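Example record

One chain of 314 residues, shown exactly as stored in the release files.
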Amino acid sequence: MHAMPAVNIILSTYNGSKHIRRQLDSLLSQTYPNLAVYIRDDGSQDGTVGILKEYVARSKAGREIILLGSHGGNLGCPASFYQILRECKAADYYAFCDQDDIWYPDKIKWAVERLQENRERAPGRQRPCVYFSACDYYTDEGEFLRRSPAWEGEVTLTDVLYYTPASGFLLVFNEAARQELVLKVDPGSELHDRWLLRGAACFGSILPDPRCSAAHIRHSEAVTAEDSSNSNLIRSFLQNEIGGTAMTDSKKHLAYFQRTFGNRLMKPQQKALSLFTAPNSLQRQLRKLFYPKRLRARLAGEAAIRILFLIGKI
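Predicted structure tokens for this chain:
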């Protein structure tokens, strides 16, 4: 009988004492039997580390909790997550985890089943593979906000240029993804979900799952335009993306991704990235403005990014 694939849960904490017990309890309540939780605290000033040590002391095989050293102090996100991936033991699969969510019991079980099915379909050299599910969004007062939309069809590079179909805490990925997208290259400063999904879209596969595997808590100060009406959403885009640096930063990240992987990218991928990373010209602005493929899931977001192309912001 083959051993159950090992899963490492990758958790970075920072001043999370208010919610961390509930999250850790949900991790330990997973129905999947072979997992380890690797935690790196990013310089908490509250009681987070004390709580973590309590859980470490009573952890056991199949549910082991490992608290890594915090050498390097406060790294922030996403660097702290990348650091855990560099330091943890090798496993078959890895799952990013935020400190203040609640995982439903079958989250890892569903992910491993889908990833194993994909692996059995292509038993040779493994390529980067990333799984993600849907989730529920709640306020910290327990009010339901929305359910993330189910992804339809294949996820391609175009889908992850300016949109992230799943947040980091929903991603579960294989060892090939850790090796090819984190250990063998420098991921830079781009958020871990965007980097992993874009890499898998280019060099491997992405497995969307319409089932809901977690409750994501939106704190009052962090409820975003994505949780709002279309009118509020486009107002936020105009304020933060036209008035701020969010989209110029995204363009820099795309250019960094292109430089990092260079000739490994296929010609159509190189061509698409070059259109969105090269310096603006009137011809490029028009080509981006009338780009035939959808770049964002919601209509208001799509309208906002076309405005940015029109005015030459990105």
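Notes: The longest helix spans residues 246-261.
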